[in-house]
Structure formats: C-alpha cells, structure tokens
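G., before I forget:
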Amino acid sequence: MSEEQIRSLEKQFDERIARDEKIEPKDWMPEKYRHTHIRQMSQHAHSEVVGMLPEGNWITRAPSLRRKVALLAKIQDEAGHGLYLYSATETLGVTREELYDQLHSGKAKYSSIFNYPTLTWADMGAIGWLVDGAAIINQVPLCNTSYGPYARAMIRVCKEESFHQRQGYEIMMKLANGTPEQKDMAQDALNRWWWPSLMMLGPTDDKSVHTEQSMKWKLKRKTNDELRQQFIDQTVPQADLIGLTIPDPDLKWNEERQSYDFGAINWDEFWQVVKGHGPCNKERMKARVNAWEEGEWVRDAAMAYAEKKQERKQKQAV
Amino acid sequence: MKNENLYNYILGIADNSLILGQRMGELCGHGPSLETDIACTNISLDLFGQVRSYFQYAAKIAGDKRTEDDIAMLRKEREYKNVLLVEQPNTNFAYSIGRQFLFDVYHLAFLTELQKSSDLTLSAIANKCVKEVSYHERFSSDWVKRLGDGTEESNQKMQEAINDLWTYTDELFHQTPADIAMVTEGVGVDVTKLKEKYYKQVSELLQEANLEVPESKWFQKGGKEGIHTEHLGYLLSDLQYMQRTYPNMEW
C-alpha cells in the first residue's frame, strides 16, 4: 500500500471515530491503534486476573458464610472479566498464550494496586470500596470507547464493578458501626489503601505519556488529574458518612472550586511499585507463573484428550 | 434439644459441603487455566450456598441463639462430621479432581434420594442442590476422563490420586446412629443402598478414562464420628480464624 493510500485510510478512520462510529475487529485500523489497544486491554485483563490473588487470600478466612459466598462470587466475576477482556484482546490478532507470556516475563503491566498486601478482613472492604471505586471512574468512560469489543465488554464489567463497590462499602460500613476493634480495623485499612487508590488514576497529566493519543481514540475521555479529583470528591463524603477519616491532613473543601483540595501524593512510591519493587510484586508474579507452570500438564492432557476424541470420531465416520 | 437426631443428621450432610467448599475455595486464582479456575470457584460457591441452607435450618431446629456461622465456625475439631474424603488436601489438580469426582458421584445419588425425604425443608434443599451437583459431577467426570486419557503424565497423576483417595470412599456408605434414626423416620437416606451403584458407576468411568480401578479393600473411616485426618485441623484454623479472634461480632 502506498503512503498516500495509508494516509487516506487513516483520514477515513479518524473521521469514523470522530463520528462516534465503532471500530470492529475486521475493519482496517492503524498499527498504532492496534498496538495501543492490545497494550491497554491486556493490561486490563491482567489486572483482573492478578487482582484475584489479594482477595483470594481471604476466601478461606472470611468471617461469615454470607461474606464468604459474596467474596467468592466477586472473585469469580473478576475471573470472568479477565476472560472476556482476553477474548476481546484476541480479536486484535494476538493469542492468550502470547499475552500470558508478556505478563509472566514482566513485559506487560497490571494495576500496581494489587502489589499491596491484604492484611485484615477490612482490606476486603477497602478494596471493594476504593479500588473498585477508582476502577469504575477509570472504566465508565470506556463504555463509549471507539473499539467495539472493548466498549461492549466494559458495559458488563462496569455493571458488575459497581455492585462490587457497593458491596465493599457495605463491608466498611458494618465495621465502622461495629465494635471499637472493628472500627480500628476499618480505619487502618482506609489508611493503607487511600493513597495507592489515588495513584490508580495514573500519573499526573504532565507526566502521562499516553493521554493525548488516547483522548483522540476515546480510550480516554478525561485526564488522570480530572479522574482523580472526581474520585476524591465522590469518596470523601462516603467516608464522612460512616465516620472514617481520610488519612490526608491537607484535605479541605474548596468553596471556590466546589471540590476537595488534597495533599501531595508520594509519586516515588508509585514508581517504585510500578517498576516492580512494591511489597508484593514478586509474590503476585510468582503465584501467576506457578499456576501457569504447574497447570501445564493439565492443559496438555486436555489437548491430548481432545485430539484423541477427534481421531476416534473420524475413525467412526470412516 | 428436641430434635437432636435431625440436627446431627443435617450437620452430617452439611459438613461435607462446608469442608469441600473450603478446599475448592483454596484453589481460587491458582487454577491451571482461567476457565477451570472459574469452574472450581463456582463449585465452592455452590457448596457454601448449600451449607447456608442446611445450617440455617439446623439453627432453627436448635431453637437457641446459635446462628449458621456459629455452627459453621465455632465447633471443635471433634465435632465436625464430614467424611475424611472431603478434607484431603489439594496435593495437585489430579487430587482435587479425584476428590471432587469420588464425592460428586455419591453426592448426586444421595441428593436424588433426599428429595424424597418426609422432611419438607430437607427435600426442598435437596431439590435445589441436585441441579448444582449434577453439574459438579459432569465437570469432575469430564476432567477424570481428560486426565486419565490425556497424556502419560496426566494418566499417572490421575491414577495416583485415585489410588490414594480410594481408601476414603467406603466411609460414604457408613451409617451413624443419627443416620439410622433418620432413615427409620423416613427423613434420611439409607446410604448403604447407594453403595453398589456408586462403585459400579465410578468403576465404569475410571475404565473409560483408561484408569485402573483400585483393588484395595482397606478403607479408612472416622470422619462421621469426628475422628479426622491431621489435615482438618489446619483447614479449621483458617475457617475459624475470624470468629475465634473476634468473638461475638457481626460482619
């Protein structure tokens, strides 16, 4: 294809996106669009799957049967999100094995928040309330993103995430209204998860490398700083309502901006965790790699069995 | 307690689901593929759902202040009545599947009969559970076939798991005094009558899966009387951790 032809296709492509048309798997798309989407969608899928681990810690120790059932269902939803996000990514011409390889080799990233440890039951509440809360803020705009399979997957993901967020908040509410020990547990969880949750909305706008192009492709509709402000403004009143204190001495309502001012985020910590040196990076990756390697003989068996079955069927047909 | 036999009978049924659900829950996030991970979590979820129905009913029968969670999490090790089979650890995927399969075949036959119970609550619970468990049985049977008739390695692993777990199968058909009392009243299922069909069905599937049916006639039992393998204590310390550490609180 000549450069001129490519430019013409690109122009038509940009116009389609500007008209809010969906791009579908078989449509022509610029290579950069394809790669950016593989990167972001697989990162999202990886986050769902790695995110099962910190919560999975508490399945065997959940404090009541009702909570255990709800936690199992929640983690199962996350595995489901992983599954259809991987499938949606595969429509861009990459296999799930390749995506796993990228995760296991450290080439692909996943949400850094899952490199923090879950130390108490209250962390199950804090993750639902704050982490899923921040995820929803990131994800709701993606329901209208330009790539069809991603947009459709996100509609379902967001519905379930918003249920998880309410469930997490309800766990926190129960603790906050419980005994002093329970309230302490809730406050401690909020103290540990607050700042990492703010970091989930990404680096500040001046440090964000992907924002401009992503805005054009509707992979992003608001900047990281706008999303972060939205998250804070939404979450602070929720903490107030249940009598928990946001661990930020500089947090203050700004009458003029009709928003909360907040303290400085420790971006050194953010980059440390992103670069692989957070409290649980090694454990999380080891758990994923182990599951994959120890499962190899199982997957091989399933393949061999399917082939044998197919052969027998063919023989019978002859 | 007025209905002590019924209470104990329900616990005997529910503890199997409780302990097996706990074991399957341990696998969440660590499965050999995302699809099997979801399926194992789903089985765990079904089993805990069943446990809740049984224990809510048991709490009602007890008629005191105890709740489903008290029954599930605040008994001592010797008071759990599950069979030894379900508490066996997730040594590898073949053991998890083998344990599930050997229990599912029994569980499905048991629930099918329990639907005819003269106790309407138990019969209604069985009616709901039987649908879930027939899915479990299909899942575990399919995997026994895949592993047994897959590769040489998977065949060996599956065979080893079946050989090791076989010793715990006979206990499924052992009756406690509460069982016998409940059978006499038309409430309980006479498990001795399920035995022959069980071994026939299991053996046929193992053969189809290119596996040998163990010939050993040495069996272990004791779980139904609260005499467990060493594995249960560790499982309970996780299960009970929150209720023991923070007593008398609501979650």
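Chain B has eleven helices and no strands. The domain at 4-245 of chain B is CATH 1.20.1260.10 (Ferritin).

More on Monday.
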